[in-house]
TrEMBL record:
<dbReference type="InterPro" id="IPR029044">
    <property type="entry name" value="Nucleotide-diphossugar_trans"/>
</dbReference>
<dbReference type="GO" id="GO:0016740">
    <property type="term" value="F:transferase activity"/>
</dbReference>
<protein>
    <submittedName>
        <fullName>Glycosyl transferase</fullName>
    </submittedName>
</protein>
<keyword id="KW-0808">Transferase</keyword>
């Protein structure tokens, strides 16, 4: 091995070490911010007596925040809920949907405290992540529903930005974080290669991702959205894909709202529960690509993605 090659290899090793160092520093910084926010939310939870919801109406129907969780995350969900209760614009209702199997399970004290301030806990059939929206659509068809995830702490103006955009032009589904669908010869390129959505214009190619928070106007879907036998069979692990497909099926567009983070990441992830997150199934096993193909072929939706 020549001296020049040895020098090049040594330089590459230093670069690799620097990359790892930067990644470690970034992780420490992120954890520090997250832990500080948790301390703040815990203080709110224990000492705040104000309602986490409001009777104020921003339009002629209610704004409902809907989410779901399951037993392994039951003791962590309160953080997402508390971040929603501390919003600059509060929801009219906050509903946590739990599977029927948890009906006899004693709820954590954190959730019980939040129930005194407006949180509603409802039970339904276990349809995985679809519990965050399907039961709410059935129960409140005339209201706007904002879905959030149970493993995120949200920025204080999440609801404000979604609601303001919706009131201004109520024909769209509004989202904070999403991707831009990438096609080649009329077919999907791999999901992991899709770029983040930065453009705030409505487009058939906008693909909302639920973790950022999504507002669904009343009657935005046809009744096909409730076809459980289909979505649990061909799209069991990605409600994002199903709801995007059902929006296209009903000729509805999605539109990104302003976010403080250009990528739409106006939230902090709870890293302690990420090992059981759906994105590990969908990304690690390329399930998104399979489910996209199956749903779009079943409903013949590819033609609707052609940008005029």
């Amino acid at each position: 091995m020549t001296p020049l090659i040895k020098k090049i290899e040594a330089a590459i090793k230093k670069i690799d070490n620097l990359d790892r160092l930067y990644a470690d520093i970034a992780l420490v910084y992120t954890n520090s911010i997250y832990n500080s926010r948790v301390i703040q939310l815990n203080d709110y939870l224990l000492h705040c007596c104000e309602s986490g919801v409001t009777d104020t109406h921003y339009c002629d129907h209610e704004i409902i925040v809907s989410l779901t969780t399951y037993e392994p995350r039951l003791y962590e969900t309160y953080l997402a809920i508390e971040s929603i209760m501390q919003q600059t614009v509060k929801a009219n209702r906050i509903i946590l949907w739990l599977p029927d199997s948890l009906k006899t399970t004693t709820l954590p004290n954190t959730l019980q405290l939040q129930m005194k301030r407006g949180l509603e806990v409802r039970y339904c059939k276990d349809i995985r992540s679809y519990k965050k929206l399907i039961p709410a659509l059935r129960s409140y068809p005339d209201d706007a529903i904002i879905t959030i995830d149970d493993d995120a702490i949200y920025h204080i103006d999440l609801i404000e930005k979604l609601v303001n955009s919706y009131i201004k032009d109520p024909q769209f589904i509004y989202f904070n974080r999403g991707r831009r669908i990438n096609l080649q010869d009329g077919k999907f390129l791999p999901y992991l290669g899709w770029k983040k959505c930065f453009d705030m214009e409505a487009s058939v190619l906008n693909f909302p991702t639920g973790v950022g928070g999504i507002l669904y106007p009343p009657h935005i879907f046809s009744d096909e959205v409730f076809n459980e036998s289909v979505f649990m069979n061909i799209c069991p692990f990605s409600d994002d894909i199903w709801f995007k497909a059902m929006a296209l099926y009903n000729d509805k567009l999605c539109k990104k709202v302003y976010t403080h983070n250009r990528s739409g990441n106006d939230y902090l992830e709870n890293l302690s529960v990420q090992n059981c997150a759906l994105h590990h199934i969908n990304h690690g096993q390329q399930q998104n690509d399979i489910q996209l193909k199956d749903v779009f072929e079943k409903y013949d939706l590819y033609e609707k993605l052609i940008v005029m």
